Amino acid sequence: MVSFRIVNLSSIDLNLLVVLRAVLDERSVARAAARLHVTPPAVSNALARLRDLFGDPLFVRSGRGITPTPRALELAPILDRSLGLLETSLQGGAFDPESCTRELTIALSDADLVASLSAIAKVFTRRLPKATLRVVTLDTLVSLGGLAGESVDLAIGPPVDEPGLHSQLLFEEAGVLIARRSHPRVRRVLTKEAFNREGHVDILLLLGRAGAGNRAVEQAMREAGLVRRIVATVPTFAAAASIVASTDFLSGVPLRAARLFARALPIRILEGPLRPFWFPMHLCWHERTHHDPAVAAFRAVVVEALAERKTERTAAAGGRRSRVARA
User: Fold this and answer.
1) Which of 22, 274, 290, 321 has the most C-beta neighbours closer than 10 Å?
2) How is the chain split among helix, strand and coil, in percent rounded to 5?
3) How far from the centroid of its chain's Cα atoms is residue 225's Cα?
4) In CATH, which of 3.40.190.290, 3.40.50.10610, 3.40.50.720, 1.10.760.10 is domain 102-327?
């Protein structure tokens, strides 16, 4: 027989949830007590009431510390978001980014982890000095329910036409082909015949599935009479570059990431047989955070951090050969 616990919200002491969030963050009763300016016994008493409230141990001892139960981990993102919104509402007046203590989350591909994250972190630290920047992969975004879920605020990627989603163009990213520098058959200029002959490493970023960008490139190549002979599939651009560096395979990766990979790996950027394919990369968010002032400030941070990338395609026009050669 299944039993249900009926909780009267009016009987819950909100301070208990504040204690629970602190213990989840600190993984220590003593550190949580110091953070909340109370005694450790007061935190222990609050945890006892929380265990009764949720019908779960919430934490178990592990060595010298404590480990949250699955139920406590399930509550963690809900508490962060709910208490954060409540704190913002209680502040009243205009939102002050310099005093915001929220955890703000963005989902990035591994290409943007190496090519965009440092710029975002630099501006984030300046504009939201007390907030916490959390970065997850696109795989994690999908597994957490996308932007409609409760865990991720923003994502950078191709625009997606889904109900409730908002987006803003950040920049256009060129996709280029790479090969190892000592490839026996491929030099800097790749012919159509060589493209169709060589093996290719494909990148499937979203839980092993092809995304919108992958499908768009595949269609453009088919229309040009190009056929990729896929010999391996990997979940990240970095993995593809690593394979290319030690084999005779080719792969397509974003230009900025390719330049960075080429500093550490023996790979080169190729020209042809098509001009670089330009991907519109958007900042995406959901309607649920559209009016949230903290997330709005976070969006402004990302836009400011990547503003210079908007001019890349214009700068590349007319100078493709010399720009790629320098990479």
Assistant:
1) 22
2) 50, 20, 30
3) 34
4) 3.40.190.290
> How far is Cα 310 from Cα 314, in angstroms, rounded to an integer?
8
For the segment 253-274, what is each residue's pLDDT rounded down to a tens digit?
Answer: 999 999 999 999 999 999 978 8
Residue 97: cis peptide before it, omega within 30 degrees of 0: no
Judge contact between 301 and 218, C-beta under 8 A: no
- Domain coordinates of the chain in residue numbers? 13-89, 102-327
Residue 77, pLDDT score: 85
Q: Which segments of the chain are extended strands (E)? A: 59-62, 65-68, 103-108, 132-137, 154-157, 165-180, 199-203, 229-234, 250-254, 267-269, 277-286
pTM, full prediction: 0.67
Instruction: Name the phi and psi angles at 298, rounded to 5.
Output: -65, -45
